[in-house]
């Protein structure tokens, strides 16, 4: 009698192996999808809304600022070497002003309605009179000026010099540089808390924030943020600094907004972002924090009290600069690639 293996055994064995392999694949795929959503999922479902309007400006708009007294919006156009002036009521461009080469950041002095524009290739700051909409002065600053902020009470303008690793301080009465302050490597954005007369400067390469006392232009010890900072805002009411951070560790990217207690320089939580942070802006009157993110191109709305994302708006390609008009609850976002401004009303 033949007691060797049946001719059907190899077939049966093959079917069993096939079934086991399929089961392993199903389990592996399930785990893979779970890991993907744990890492990349945007969290609670939030409906994305479209911007209320779009305004065409110059080429490669970069910075945005609003004169809240006149509801006038100013936009730097990096590749056009101009500033577009927008009537916030009609949402139309009313003037285009020629400035220096490659204008980036800008800021408005609410006391005089003067506009200060950093010209990164000219190593200068253009001063625009808000009444006549003409350039009335040009001030030489450091190497590759980038961000601008104003302390109106101290009659000072703070300009970051990206390649100079410094901040130029302009006396608005004399319209001249009165001091140069050394900060970290590649300082980009700057914001001023006018209640404490403190300027906060983000240093891209050092992963730090430089803290400057604007009453004496003295720089204190830097604050470490744990990643490359992009965009900074401050809430004078709560003494909280908000900085967008992009961190890459072991090949994994983490992007978030980091709230920092300005008094003790600590943070206990982060607000996760789906996309790379570009800029931040705060509407302190209405208690709303905004952040532009790239890939995907969105305006993210954050409640600074709960530190949770509450709304997301679709804007143009590569959104950057943000400015807020608190009275009209209107947000203006510069879309670098499109040459447009997205208008979001909340």
From TrEMBL:
It comes from the Bacteria. Keywords: Membrane, Signal, Transmembrane, Transmembrane helix. The keyword Transmembrane applies. InterPro entries: Host-pathogen_enzymatic-act, N2O_reductase_N, WD40/YVTN_repeat-like_dom_sf, YNCE-like_beta-prop, YVTN_b-propeller_repeat. This is YncE family protein. Residues 65-140 form the YNCE-like beta-propeller domain. The keyword Flavoprotein does not apply. The chain crosses the membrane at residues 12-38. It holds the Pfam family YNCE.
């Amino acid at each position: 009698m033949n007691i060797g293996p049946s001719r059907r055994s190899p077939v049966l064995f093959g079917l069993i192996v096939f079934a086991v392999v399929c089961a392993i694949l199903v389990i592996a795929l399930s785990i893979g999808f779970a890991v993907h959503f744990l890492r990349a999922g945007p969290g609670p479902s939030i409906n994305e809304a479209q911007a209320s309007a779009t305004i065409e400006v110059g080429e490669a708009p970069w910075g945005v600022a609003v004169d809240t007294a006149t509801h006038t919006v100013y936009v730097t156009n990096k590749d056009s070497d101009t500033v577009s002036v927008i009537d916030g009521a009609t949402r139309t461009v009313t003037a285009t002003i020629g400035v220096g080469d490659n204008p980036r950041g800008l800021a408005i002095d609410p006391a005089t309605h003067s506009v200060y524009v950093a010209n990164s290739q000219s190593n200068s700051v253009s001063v625009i009179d808000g009444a006549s909409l003409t350039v009335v002065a040009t001030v030489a600053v450091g190497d590759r000026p980038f961000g601008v902020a104003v302390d109106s009470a101290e009659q000072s303008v703070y300009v970051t010099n990206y390649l100079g690793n410094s901040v130029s301080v302009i006396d608005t009465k004399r319209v001249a540089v009165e001091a140069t302050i050394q900060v970290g490597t590649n300082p980009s954005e700057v914001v001023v808390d006018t209640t404490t007369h403190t300027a906060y400067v983000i240093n891209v390469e050092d992963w730090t924030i430089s803290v400057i006392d604007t009453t004496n232009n003295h720089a204190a010890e830097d604050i470490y943020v744990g990643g490359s900072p992009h965009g900074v805002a401050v809430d004078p009411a709560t003494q909280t600094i908000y900085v967008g951070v992009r961190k890459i560790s072991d090949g994994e990217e983490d992007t978030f907004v980091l709230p920092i207690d300005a008094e003790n320089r600590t943070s206990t939580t982060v607000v996760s972002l789906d996309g790379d942070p570009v800029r931040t802006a705060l509407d302190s009157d209405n208690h709303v924090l905004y952040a532009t993110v790239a890939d995907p191109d969105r305006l993210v709305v954050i409640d600074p009290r709960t530190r949770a994302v509450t709304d997301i708006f679709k804007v143009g390609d590569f959104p950057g600069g943000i400015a807020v008009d608190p009275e009209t609850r209107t947000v203006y976002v510069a879309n670098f690639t499109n040459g447009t401004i997205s208008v979001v009303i909340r």
